[in-house]
Write a structure and sequence with these properties.
The chain is an alpha+beta fold. Helix content is 48%, strand content 13%. The radius of gyration is 35 Å and the shape is rod-shaped.
Length: 132
Protein backbone atom coordinates (compact mmCIF):
# COMPACT_ATOMS: atom_id res chain seq x y z
CA UNK A 1 0.00 0.00 0.00
CA UNK A 2 1.44 3.36 -0.92
CA UNK A 3 2.03 5.91 1.81
CA UNK A 4 -0.57 8.27 0.43
CA UNK A 5 -3.25 5.61 0.46
CA UNK A 6 -2.20 4.47 3.94
CA UNK A 7 -2.75 7.92 5.51
CA UNK A 8 -6.00 8.56 3.74
CA UNK A 9 -7.42 5.19 4.68
CA UNK A 10 -10.66 5.71 6.65
CA UNK A 11 -9.77 3.16 9.36
CA UNK A 12 -7.15 5.52 10.85
CA UNK A 13 -9.28 8.68 10.92
CA UNK A 14 -11.98 9.43 13.42
CA UNK A 15 -15.34 9.88 11.85
CA UNK A 16 -16.74 13.45 12.08
CA UNK A 17 -19.51 12.19 14.35
CA UNK A 18 -17.00 11.13 17.01
CA UNK A 19 -15.17 14.47 16.90
CA UNK A 20 -18.38 16.36 17.60
CA UNK A 21 -19.20 13.87 20.38
CA UNK A 22 -15.75 14.45 21.87
CA UNK A 23 -16.34 18.22 21.80
CA UNK A 24 -19.74 17.73 23.38
CA UNK A 25 -18.17 15.49 26.02
CA UNK A 26 -15.55 18.14 26.81
CA UNK A 27 -18.27 20.78 27.07
CA UNK A 28 -20.24 18.47 29.33
CA UNK A 29 -17.15 18.00 31.52
CA UNK A 30 -16.72 21.79 31.81
CA UNK A 31 -20.40 22.18 32.65
CA UNK A 32 -20.21 19.42 35.26
CA UNK A 33 -17.17 21.06 36.85
CA UNK A 34 -18.88 24.45 36.99
CA UNK A 35 -22.02 22.86 38.47
CA UNK A 36 -19.87 21.07 41.05
CA UNK A 37 -18.16 24.36 41.87
CA UNK A 38 -21.49 26.11 42.33
CA UNK A 39 -22.78 23.30 44.55
CA UNK A 40 -19.63 23.46 46.70
CA UNK A 41 -19.88 27.26 46.98
CA UNK A 42 -23.54 27.03 47.93
CA UNK A 43 -22.77 24.36 50.54
CA UNK A 44 -20.03 26.55 52.05
CA UNK A 45 -22.38 29.55 52.23
CA UNK A 46 -25.14 27.50 53.87
CA UNK A 47 -22.70 26.02 56.40
CA UNK A 48 -21.22 29.44 57.18
CA UNK A 49 -24.60 31.04 57.82
CA UNK A 50 -25.72 28.08 59.94
CA UNK A 51 -22.55 28.00 62.03
CA UNK A 52 -22.58 31.76 62.53
CA UNK A 53 -25.74 31.50 64.63
CA UNK A 54 -24.41 28.74 66.87
CA UNK A 55 -22.77 29.70 70.15
CA UNK A 56 -19.07 28.94 70.00
CA UNK A 57 -18.79 27.99 73.65
CA UNK A 58 -21.12 26.64 76.29
CA UNK A 59 -21.81 30.13 77.64
CA UNK A 60 -22.55 31.54 74.20
CA UNK A 61 -20.98 34.79 73.09
CA UNK A 62 -21.13 36.60 76.39
CA UNK A 63 -18.70 39.43 77.06
CA UNK A 64 -18.10 38.33 80.65
CA UNK A 65 -16.42 35.03 81.36
CA UNK A 66 -17.27 33.50 84.66
CA UNK A 67 -19.44 35.08 87.34
CA UNK A 68 -17.48 38.36 87.61
CA UNK A 69 -16.29 40.29 90.65
CA UNK A 70 -18.59 40.94 93.60
CA UNK A 71 -17.77 44.61 94.04
CA UNK A 72 -15.73 47.47 92.58
CA UNK A 73 -14.56 50.57 94.43
CA UNK A 74 -17.21 53.21 93.69
CA UNK A 75 -14.62 55.99 93.30
CA UNK A 76 -13.04 54.08 90.38
CA UNK A 77 -16.25 53.69 88.36
CA UNK A 78 -16.42 55.85 85.25
CA UNK A 79 -19.35 54.18 83.51
CA UNK A 80 -21.66 51.21 84.05
CA UNK A 81 -23.31 49.27 81.26
CA UNK A 82 -26.02 46.64 81.53
CA UNK A 83 -26.41 44.09 78.76
CA UNK A 84 -29.67 42.17 78.98
CA UNK A 85 -30.13 38.56 77.76
CA UNK A 86 -30.28 38.16 73.99
CA UNK A 87 -29.70 35.53 71.32
CA UNK A 88 -25.94 35.82 71.85
CA UNK A 89 -25.88 35.50 75.64
CA UNK A 90 -28.58 34.20 77.94
CA UNK A 91 -27.59 36.11 81.10
CA UNK A 92 -27.52 39.69 82.35
CA UNK A 93 -24.06 41.26 82.20
CA UNK A 94 -22.99 44.29 84.20
CA UNK A 95 -19.83 45.82 82.75
CA UNK A 96 -18.02 48.51 84.72
CA UNK A 97 -15.59 50.85 82.95
CA UNK A 98 -12.92 52.07 85.34
CA UNK A 99 -11.38 55.54 85.46
CA UNK A 100 -7.81 56.33 84.41
CA UNK A 101 -7.92 53.78 81.57
CA UNK A 102 -7.71 50.84 83.98
CA UNK A 103 -9.98 48.78 81.73
CA UNK A 104 -13.30 47.10 82.34
CA UNK A 105 -14.57 44.67 84.93
CA UNK A 106 -17.54 42.37 84.86
CA UNK A 107 -19.66 42.67 87.95
CA UNK A 108 -21.55 39.64 89.21
CA UNK A 109 -25.22 40.50 88.48
CA UNK A 110 -26.30 38.66 91.64
CA UNK A 111 -24.10 40.76 93.92
CA UNK A 112 -25.51 43.54 96.08
CA UNK A 113 -23.54 46.29 94.29
CA UNK A 114 -24.69 45.05 90.88
CA UNK A 115 -28.35 45.02 91.92
CA UNK A 116 -28.02 48.63 93.17
CA UNK A 117 -26.36 49.71 89.89
CA UNK A 118 -29.01 47.92 87.81
CA UNK A 119 -31.82 49.65 89.73
CA UNK A 120 -30.17 53.08 89.34
CA UNK A 121 -29.61 52.66 85.61
CA UNK A 122 -33.17 51.40 85.07
CA UNK A 123 -34.54 54.35 87.05
CA UNK A 124 -32.42 56.79 85.01
CA UNK A 125 -33.64 55.25 81.75
CA UNK A 126 -37.25 55.32 82.95
CA UNK A 127 -36.99 59.01 83.92
CA UNK A 128 -35.21 59.85 80.68
CA UNK A 129 -38.07 58.47 78.61
CA UNK A 130 -40.71 60.03 80.90
CA UNK A 131 -39.40 63.55 80.20
CA UNK A 132 -39.51 63.15 76.43
Amino acid sequence: MPVKNFLSHSAFLLPPRRVSTLKQWQQLQKTNMSVKGMVIALAVIVCATTVQGFPMFKAGRCLCRGPGVKAVKVANIEKATIIYPSNNCDKIEVIITLKAHKGQRCLNPKSKQASIIIKKIERMNFLKYQNV
